[in-house]
Design a protein that fits this description.
Elements: H1 2-10, H2 12-36, H3 38-46, H4 55-74
Helix pairs in contact: 3-4
């Protein structure tokens, strides 16, 4: 039984299919993790332009976004 599986998975066509299924399921899992929780999605969205900002501007905008998210959560 194990030898049959090893022979099957060693075939390049089968191993590519298995790898595709693994990577696709991981990708869908990451998307679900990021967008399933609205607060997490909003927080990650607030970090979108951080690499393009100066350090002072980035710190100020990130703190403002986190404060806004906390204010929404308290309502």
């Amino acid at each position: 039984m194990l030898t049959d599986f090893k022979t099957w998975i060693m075939d390049i066509g089968n191993s590519q299919t298995v790898a595709l299924l693994i990577f696709f399921s991981v990708f869908i899992g990451i998307l679900f993790y990021v967008y399933a929780n609205r607060k997490r999605g909003e927080r990650l969205e607030s970090y979108r332009y951080t690499p393009l900002l100066d350090e002072d501007d980035a710190d100020r905008k990130v703190k403002a976004a986190e404060a806004a998210i906390q204010a929404k959560g308290e309502k």
